[in-house]
Write a structure and sequence with these properties.
about 10% strand; alpha/beta; Arc Repressor Mutant, subunit A
Length: about 240
C-alpha cells in the first residue's frame, strides 16, 4: 500500500504543479488573448471593460481602451493586443479607417467591429477594411467570448443578422458575379451557400448532390477567385465590386 500511496502523492503533486502553472500563465497574460477596445462612448467602454475583466479566468485579458482610431494606433505598438473591438463611428479617425490602417501596420492583430448598426453601408466597408468579425453592441457576453476566440484562432465571426446582410448582397448581385467572375450557375449557387456558412455536407444535402461534387466545385471557385478561405472570398467580392456597398 505504501508504494501506491507514494505514487498517488507524486501524481497529485505533478497534477497540481501543471494546474497552478497554467493559472499563473493566465494571470500574467502569457497565454491569454489580449483584447483592446476602441470606442468614443465612455459608458460603453466601461461596460465592455467590465465584461472582459470577468473573462480573465477564461483566458481573455483586457489590455486597454481608446476613444478613437488615432489614439488606438498610437497605443497598439506598446500594448500589442491580439484582438481589437472596434466601434465604427468615432471622431478623429473612424473604425473603418482605423481597421484599414491597422491591417497595414499590424496585420496579425484581429479586428471585430462592435456597432449598433446593421446597415450594409457600415457592415460591408468594415469587411473590406479587413475586419474578421462583426458584432452588435447588444450582444451577450457568451457571444462576445466566442467571437474573440474565433477571430484569434484565424476564423471569421459575424452575428447572424450580419451574415444575412452579406448573403443578401451576394444574392442581389448574382448576375453581376456570373459575368465578372465567369462562374457557372452552379458555382454561383454554391458560392452563395458557402457565404451563408454552410458546410460541404449541408450544401450537398440541400442540392441533392454528393459531398465530393460540392468539394470539387468549391475548389473550382477558390481557383477562379484566387482565394483560400471564406473571409478572403468575401473580401475579393467586395474588391471586385461583386458585392455593392
Amino acid at each position: 500500500m505504501g508504494i501506491y500511496t507514494d505514487c498517488f502523492f507524486i501524481f497529485y503533486l505533478l497534477f497540481s504543479y501543471v494546474i497552478n502553472r497554467q493559472k499563473l500563465l493566465l494571470m500574467t497574460g502569457n497565454t491569454a488573448i489580449r483584447v483592446y477596445i476602441a470606442d468614443d462612448h465612455t459608458f460603453f467602454r466601461y461596460g465592455i471593460r467590465s465584461a472582459l475583466q470577468s473573462l480573465k479566468k477564461e483566458g481573455i485579458l483586457f489590455m486597454g481602451e481608446a476613444p478613437n482610431g488615432a489614439v488606438l494606433l498610437d497605443a497598439i505598438a506598446l500594448q500589442q493586443p491580439h484582438v481589437v473591438l472596434m466601434d465604427i463611428e468615432m471622431p478623429v479617425m473612424n473604425g473603418i479607417e482605423a481597421t484599414a490602417m491597422l491591417k497595414k501596420l499590424y496585420p496579425n492583430v484581429r479586428t471585430i467591429a462592435l456597432s449598433f448598426s446593421e446597415q450594409k453601408n457600415h457592415v460591408l466597408p468594415m469587411l473590406e477594411a479587413g475586419a474578421e468579425g462583426y458584432l452588435l453592441k447588444d450582444t451577450g457576453i457568451s457571444e462576445l467570448k466566442q467571437a474573440i476566440r474565433n477571430v484569434h484562432e484565424g476564423y471569421a465571426y459575424y452575428t447572424p443578422s450580419v451574415s444575412h446582410i452579406i448573403a443578401a448582397n451576394i444574392r442581389d448581385t448574382k448576375t453581376k458575379s456570373l459575368s465578372k467572375k465567369t462562374l457557372t450557375r452552379r458555382e454561383t449557387e454554391i458560392l452563395m451557400l458557402i457565404c451563408q456558412g454552410q458546410s460541404s455536407k449541408e450544401i450537398a444535402c440541400s442540392l441533392f448532390v454528393s459531398k465530393r461534387t460540392v468539394d470539387s466545385i468549391r475548389e473550382n471557385i477558390m481557383q477562379k477567385t484566387g482565394v483560400k478561405n471564406m473571409l478572403q472570398l468575401m473580401r475579393y467580392a467586395l474588391k471586385e465590386e461583386l458585392i455593392t456597398v
